Every structure is written in structure tokens, then in C-alpha cells.
Amino acid sequence: MSIISTDIQKAVHLLTNEELVAIPTETVYGLAGNIYSEKAVKRIFSTKKRPFFNPLIVHIASAKALQTMTTHIPEKAKLLADAFWPGSMTLVLKKNEKIPDMITAGKDTVAIRVPNHPVTLELLKQLPFPLAAPSANPFGSISPTKPEHVESYFKNDILQVLDGGACSNGIESTIIGFEKETPVIFRLGALALEDIEAVVGSVSIKNKKEESPDAPGMLARHYAPSTQTLLVDDVASEAKKHSTKKVGVLVFKESLNNSSLTEIILSDNGSMHEAASKLYDSLHELDHQKLDIIIAERLPNNGLGKSMNDRLQRATFTI
Ligand code: TXA
Ligand code: MG
Hints:
By secondary structure, the protein is α/β, with parallel strands linked by helices. Helix content is 29%, strand content 21%. It has helices at 8-16, 38-48, 75-84, 101-104, 118-126, 147-154, 193-200, 235-241, 272-287, 304-315; strands at residues 4-5, 21-23, 30-34, 57-59, 70-72, 89-95, 109-113, 131-132, 161-162, 174-179, 182-187, 204-205, 229-232, 247-251, 262-265, 293-297, 317-318.
């Protein structure tokens, strides 16, 4: 029997009993557990095979809960929370003693987000505790944007994927931390840099491990299909070099019109939002086609294109 179900009461029951439930958000599906249950949090790490040094994001129903978890909220964090929550932004703030060390991997900061998905907002409102939820994929593999993706990863490990349909944004939240009072981007994501800068002015990006030991999840290789994948500017000429192989191509908006290739177009009309929402699903689909190689086209490097290029770089070999 499928573990996918829309039953919110079942999710409440399981989570209250320290079990894990995969939950829908507008970015990607999360593998959720009670932040105060050591048993549940340990199982999140073991189910994902995630190293303990990589901290988790805490999901809350409304920004009001921020005060109960942090020791200080910078002015610009308040502005950002007002502007973008519920939404695809995670804030990293100084934690207080109530947040268990396992959630934050021993760090003195905690990552917090109010997701913008009606099903999960309803679930969070019914629970007396927040949910820790990393993306619901084994460590290093492609993040899930449909309940079926989670089911194929974890059907033997968890009892429910709470069905909220396909994720509307399709890539992870943008993570913003603070150096003193100044916002710094730790991870590019579903909220575009330009939108953030419109609220708080120009911000720096420190999303490489060398630049930011504070963002331990930003490994160089991540989000990867199991098929060899390349990221290039000119997909047509790269495909020619592999003409003896079974080739899959992932292009932004224009078809290569080559019937010997398995092709997915992210957005016919060039919408970055549509492209982002389809990015991981397309990688999942190509990865299941028994291809020899996947060739992905680099996106225009602005708006959500910048976030998508970041993910593709980590998922692929850039040439
Ligand atoms: O959209 C999302 O953010 C999804 C959905 C489920 O909410 N969650 C997600 O979680 O992407 P995860 O665990 O795959 O990525 C969380 C990232 C990791 O790179 C981790 O290192 C970073 O957040 N992070 C968590 N706590 C942090 C902290 N205190 N300081 C710096 N980075 C932190
Ligand atoms: Mg992840």
C-alpha cells in the first residue's frame, strides 16, 4: 500500500508519537520530526544518512514563535520576516537554550522558516512543537518535489508522506544569516537575490565552504543524479561529442529539435519560475531513463537562474 496520504490527523498522530512524516512545502518536501524528540531527530539523520555536523531547519507556523527560540533578532531580520514569511526564506539567528544542540549541530545559531504551504501550515498549527525538516532525500541526492519522489526514496523507512501535490517553487529556500547586524546569503534559493535586496539593500553571498564554515551543507557535490551529468553553455555542440551514447538533455526554453536525444524543456516561454519548479522533477525523470549521460544547459545568471545554476553546478561536472 502507498504511504502517500492527505490525512493531516494521521500526520499529527505520528509526529506526536516521535515518528517521522514527510511534509509538503512550496520549495521541496521535508523529512519532519518533533525538534524536542531526541529519538525523532536522530532518526532524521540516520534515515537520510546525513552527517551530524550538518544542522537542520526548524519549521514554525508563524513569525511570532521567533522570540521563543532566539536571543536576538536583528532589525533587518524583522524586515525580511515581515516581507517574505510565510515563504521560501530561512533565517539563521542566535539560538537560546531551548533549542536542542542536535538540531544546530552544536552551533550557537538556529535556522528557522515559516513555509508557505496550506497543508503544512495547518499541520504546524495543530502541533504543540515545531518541526525539524531537512529535504526528504538521502544525503547528496536530488531533492524531492513530488510525493512520489519521497516514496521511492523512503517507502521502507517512514509511515507517511503527507500529500500536498507538486511543490510550486521547486528549489530549496534561500538561507540568510547575519554578521553582526548585516544580512549574508548562505544558500541561494527559491527567493531571488534581487527580491531580498529590494527590502534590505545589497547583500553579500557566502555560499562556498571556504568562504563560510557557517553553512556546512554547502558541499561542492550535492543534489546529484546517479547518471553522469554535465553543465554547459552550448548543449547542441556538447551533445554532438557524445553521439554514440544515449544522451538526455535539459534545456531552458529552446528545443534542440534532435529526435535522437531525450529532451526536457524547462519552460517554453522562458519563465524562470516555471523552470525552477520543474528543475528537480526533470532531473529525477532523466535519471530514471537509463541514459549514459545528461547534459544540462546553464541558465541566464540572474534572478532564480542564479539559484538554479548554483544547484546544477553542485549536481554536475562543469566543463
Ligand atoms: O526549502 C528548504 O529549506 C527545505 C524545506 C524542507 O524547508 N529544507 C532544506 O533543508 O533544504 P536541508 O537540511 O536540506 O538544508 C538545510 C541547510 C543546510 O545546508 C544546513 O547546513 C543549513 O541549512 N543550516 C541549518 N542550520 C544552519 C545554521 N545554524 N547555520 C548555517 N546553516 C545552517
Ligand atoms: Mg537538502
